[in-house]
Amino acid sequence: MKRFFQIKEGQMYCLRIHFKVRYDIVFGLKFVNNVFKMFAKVEKEEEKMGSFAPQDKAHVFDLPWA
What we know:
single chain, mainly beta, two-stranded antiparallel ribbon, 0% helix
């Protein structure tokens, strides 16, 4: 599922990701952010989130300000 949103140039933003790990351990999870301007890729950022074990409640990860 892809969700698109727009952020005005020069604005600060922070993302919080909620996710569940159900059966197996997740190793080396990373968040990839591609920035496009007029259909051309301008920037690509990768943030390593780490490894997560299965649990009943959701994991929460806050990405730094960008």
